[in-house]
Design a protein that fits this description.
D-amino Acid Aminotransferase, Chain A, domain 1, 386 residues, Rossmann fold, 29% strand, 4 domains, single chain, four-stranded parallel sheet, alpha+beta
Length: 386
C-alpha cells in the first residue's frame, strides 16, 4: 500500500514510523524541507496544501491519506481535496472538532457524567489552566495562589478560551481507540511520565494500572468514542487521583509516542489497523490484546557534560531524524546523532521481557552514553509541585 502522511512534525514521525513498520510505502508531504520526519519516509514532497496548484500531482498513486497535523486551514483544504478526489482519508473531522477544543470536550465529559477534575470556581488553589485550542502540555499554567491568578488573568476578558480546573497529582495513563461504522475498539493502556513542564518525557507499557481500573478506563474510552461517533483514531488521557480515574483530555487524531510503545509491547500496529479500517477491513474482535513485552519509550538530549531526560520539546528542536537499531544498547532510537557530534537528541526505545528487566536495560543504556561522552550531569526532573 502507498500512503501519504501530511505533516512531518511529531505526529508525522509516529505515522511514518509505524506505516513503514507495516511494510507500506510512505510519501511525506510538508511545506518545510527540513521537517523532523523527512528521513523516515520513502519519498518526500515539499508542498503547501493550502497553496499548491496541483494536488493531484502531490497525491498521485496514493491509496490512503493520513493527516498528521493540527493546522485548521491545512486540514480543511486537505479534507476538501480528498472528498472531491474520492481519496480515502484517515481522519474524523467531526470528532476532531470536539477534541481540539478543551472547552467543547470538557462540556461533553460533563454531559456524559464522566469523572473529571473539579472546575473553577468550584475548585480551590492550586489550579491548572489550559488553553482550549492547544494539545498536550502546550501553554499550560499552574496557578498556586491569587498572585499567580492575577498575573495570568488580570481581567475577565483574559479568561476566554481557557479551561481552569483543580490541579491533581497522580500517575497519568493513555489509551487509543479506533472506531469505524458499527463499533470501536480500545487498545493497550500506556503509562505516562511528565517532566518539570508537564510535557510527556517517557511512556511505558504494559500498564501498572490495576486490572479493575484498567477495565474501567477502557469502558470510559468506549463511552466517549460512542458519543463522538468515532470514525478514526482517538487518544484518551486520564489521571489516577486518590484511587479514582479522572478524564483529562481526548485527541481525535494520530497521537505521538504512545502508538510506538503499544507496537513494541503488544505487536499491535495502530496505524496499520487505522488504515485498513478506513479502507473497509473489520476491526479486531477483541478489546484487549495479549501483552508480550515491557517497553520504555523515552526522550533524551545530549550536550557537552550533560544528559537530560525531558518531554517531546527535546525532539521538536531536532532535524533529520533517522531510525537506528541497537543504539548504545537500546533496541531502537529515533535520533539526529552522527559520529563526532557533541549535541544531539534521541527517542530511545528499550524493550525486554518484564518491567524490571526493561528498566535495568534502560539504565545501562544511559550509563553507556554517559561513559562514552564523558557526561557527569544527569537531569531527569518530574513536575514541579505547587
Amino acid at each position: 500500500m502507498r500512503i501519504a502522511v501530511v505533516g512531518g512534525k511529531l505526529q508525522g514521525v509516529e505515522a511514518c514510523y509505524l506505516a513503514r513498520k507495516a511494510g507500506w510505502q510512505v510519501r511525506l508531504v510538508d511545506r518545510c524541507p527540513d521537517v523532523l520526519a523527512r528521513g523516515m519516509c520513502d519519498e518526500f514532497i515539499g508542498a503547501d496544501i493550502c497553496r499548491e496548484d496541483d494536488l493531484n500531482r502531490v497525491f498521485d498513486g496514493i491509496d490512503l491519506v493520513l493527516p498528521a497535523l493540527e493546522d485548521k486551514e491545512t486540514l480543511d483544504a486537505l479534507l476538501g481535496f480528498c472528498t472531491a478526489a474520492m481519496l480515502p482519508c484517515a481522519f474524523d473531522a467531526a470528532a476532531y472538532e470536539i477534541s481540539s477544543s478543551k472547552i467543547a470536550s470538557d462540556r461533553l465529559f460533563a454531559e456524559l457524567g464522566l469523572p473529571i477534575p473539579r472546575p473553577w470556581p468550584e475548585a480551590e488553589f492550586p489550579l491548572i489552566a489550559k488553553p482550549s485550542g492547544s494539545s498536550g502540555s502546550k501553554g499550560i499554567r499552574i496557578l498556586r495562589n491569587r498572585d499567580d491568578w492575577m498575573a495570568a488573568f488580570p481581567n475577565a476578558e483574559a479568561l476566554k478560551e481557557w479551561v481552569i480546573q483543580e490541579y491533581l497529582e497522580g500517575p497519568s495513563y493513555s489509551i487509543e481507540v479506533v472506531g469505524v461504522d458499527g463499533g470501536s475498539v480500545p487498545f493497550q493502556i500506556t503509562d505516562l511520565y511528565m517532566d518539570a513542564d508537564h510535557d510527556c518525557k517517557r511512556v511505558t507499557a504494559p500498564t501498572e494500572l490495576p486490572r479493575a481500573l484498567a477495565t474501567q478506563f477502557m469502558s470510559l474510552s468506549l463511552i466517549i468514542a460512542e458519543a463522538v461517533k468515532l470514525k478514526g483514531i482517538m487518544d484518551v488521557e486520564v489521571i489516577l487521583n486518590n484511587g479514582q480515574l479522572k478524564v483529562l483530555e481526548i485527541d481525535a487524531r494520530i497521537p505521538s509516542q504512545t502508538p510506538t510503545a503499544v507496537f513494541w509491547s503488544s505487536g499491535v500496529n495502530l496505524v496499520e489497523i487505522l488504515g485498513k479500517s478506513i479502507l473497509g477491513a473489520e476491526l479486531p474482535n477483541r478489546s484487549t490484546q495479549e501483552v508480550e513485552k515491557a517497553v520504555i519509550y523515552e526522550h533524551i538530549r545530549v550536550s557537552p557534560g550533560i544528559l537530560e531526560v525531558g518531554g517531546e520539546h527535546l525532539i521538536t528542536q531536532l532535524t533529520g531524524l533517522q531510525v537506528f537499531p541497537d543504539f548504545f544498547g537500546a533496541n531502537e532510537a529515533l535520533t539526529d546523532f552522527e559520529p563526532g557530534r557533541t549535541n544531539w537528541g534521541a527517542t530511545l526505545i528499550v524493550c525486554d521481557n518484564d518491567r524490571d528487566a526493561a528498566w535495568q536495560k534502560r539504565c545501562e543504556v544511559l550509563m553507556d552514553i554517559r561513559h562514552r561522552f564523558g557526561i557527569e550531569r544527569f537531569l531527569d526532573f518530574g513536575p514541579s509541585l505547587p
